[in-house]
Amino acid sequence: MTKPQAKLMQGNEACTLGAFAAGLEFYAGYPITPSTEIAELCSEELPKLGGKFIQMEDEIGSIAACIGASLAGKKAMTATSGPGFSLMQECLGYASLTEVPIVIVDVQRMGPSTGMPTSPAQADLMQARWGTHGDHPIVVLAPGNVRECFELTFRAFDIAESLRVPVIVLMDEIVGHMREKVILPDPATLKPGRRAAPESPAGYKPYAADSDGGVPLMADFGTGYRWHVTGLFHDESGRPTQKAETCDRLLRRLSRKVEKAAPSIESHFEESLEEAEIVVVSFGCSAMSALSAVRRARREGLKAGLLRLKSVWPFPDDLVIRACAGASGVVVPEMNLGQLALEVERSLGGRAPVRRLGKVNGELFRPEEIFEAIASVAGREAAE
Amino acid sequence: MSDQPPKSYLHVIRERYCKGCNICVAFCPKKVLALKSGKVFAERPWLCIGCKMCELRCPDYAIEVRAAEPEPDKGANGAEQDYCLPPEACDD
Amino acid sequence: MSDFLSYFRQDNLPHIWCPGCGHGTVTGAIVRAIARKGLDKNKVCIVSGIGCSSRAVGYLDFDTLHTAHGRALAFATGIKLARPELKVIVMTGDGDCTAIGGNHFIHAARRNIDITTIVMNNNIYGMTSGQYSPMTPKGMYGTTAPYGNLERSFDLCELAKAAGATYVGRATSYHVPLLIDLIEAALGNKGFSVVEAMVQCPTYFGRKNKIGGPVEMLEWIKEGTVNVKAAASLPPEKLAGKALIGELHNAPAPEYTADYDELIAKVQRKFDTFQGGLYGCASNSD
User: Fold this and answer.
1) How many domains does chain A have?
2) How would you label B46-57 residue by residue, b for 16+ Cβ within 10 Å and e otherwise?
3) Domain range for residue A322?
4) What ipTM was assigned to the predicted interfaces of this complex?
């Protein structure tokens, strides 16, 4: 294999290459700014890899086709943005209850509604967690730069396959469209995981697992298992049931699956958090500006630190508590009216005051905007 | 008309499946079938011509028509025999 | 144990459908067509949406998928494209297919993807107890059409044909031998096939419209149909208000997944310098 060299690459492209490296075999999607490049690259490259691409009639069809392909044994992905992500919610819950691994990329744009299609936002954070109805676990990763679009999409497939869950890669228009010099890992060094399969059809139970967050073995359709998948609550053999005890056990197992794996799912970036008095907690595009602001603050004698979440759901409570342990103030810059801040406030439970810094005009934070917030929280007027 | 003896047919009834909807009884061209306490049975099996419309139309797979072997075995009338019960469970 | 029942998950029987509901009959017809074709049970995948008819797949001993309302065809498209060697069948109801699922129905037909779609049309939403559907005849009643349905209903078979389906037929739960023949032919069509099965819903449609029980409803369905072959020689007034049954359209055309496999072969030949792997593809995507 050629030695990996630096490339100037777009976030959406890196995301797609991450999926190829993870063994993507099936993409179904629908054009929507700012994610369409992912679909275009899949349509061009998947046939070369022997994979399949289809542009469905809408986003509902797209995620439904992905679930079907995954049941047929293929690693499947779709990519969309706010409006399409809203349409995908019912089937996302279906994949959660039926424990079918898929990856959904949401390249966020300014919403709600048609909003500002070419402008960045981060206001789908709560939708990514609670968009579909009913209690359900979800794993959401948030790339903060082009390289991470590759890494976290690759990681998303590993988590999806190992836990039999849908995983969301929550990008935004900036991270998706910006280009950076990137040196991607040599794919030969990467070992994509795959769902644990049963040995033989004899006595196969598609939903049998120990109740403490166990992950059942998953057979591929068309290989002689003849198993049943339903969106209704079901027993261990997949048969619909309304038995209270069985339904309770199923739902708690599903949540426990992700809870138990949370430590291995958790990933973040931090800088100068040691004895930081003002901690900036952020994710995605806003965290880039926050990093510059934190570095400027340090240069100007303010003890600021940055915590950038690369996994946002399940929300890393302990990490946030640890990062803000010594802080007298926390600043949460994000391109919404305070969604990450809600979780930061909940996890800190009053340990430190949280300053919400929401930008909702479709323009990325300028570092000085975050710097001024840091300075004001530190009780010092912004440097002249 | 061929001169062999008229073929006779065996009506296999799965009583547990039958919901007494009366479709088979109503549309049997030879009025072979009837309901007894909400379950189908072959009231006049000798009239059966083996058209199997009852079997095809039955929404519950509760009736199956088979050409009877020349010497009918002891449990000839399918009405009593519930083929849902495993043979050893039948106290004939 | 009968060969017929061997296609069922017998420990799930008897099924949940009401006494005299036509869904059981159509499900039986599908199994008989599959048996006639001698299909390998391990290579058949049956997908359904939501509604009374969609509960059928739970009783059938194949790879079965009971999906979201209206989305069976989209799920099935994913399965078929991912594993073209599987025989993919969709069982759907009139509401599931032509109301919420209408968009997927016309596009699956347009693509001519090899999926055999059985639309079990009982003219009503049965599962939710009796609302009118896009297939409820104008003027008839549903719990949401208490004064009579204002809307005209689809001619499902014309809709399928216009959208691009390459095999279209209609039969009923009265004309079961015909239904089995049509399903068998549909299974043999390498492309998008639609068989509409008009079925009786005595519990809701029959009662709400005072047609009667299962037997009377089957007679009502029988009266409302005429075989397409016979229709050719009947005067127009005899055909008024009647649904044509039989094979209505059979025009094979290139099939979507076969074309896609050809595309892969062609693309891979064109990029024969393609070494595979990450860098192989990125560098030569000119």
Assistant:
1) 2
2) ebbeeebbbbbb
3) 268-377
4) 0.93
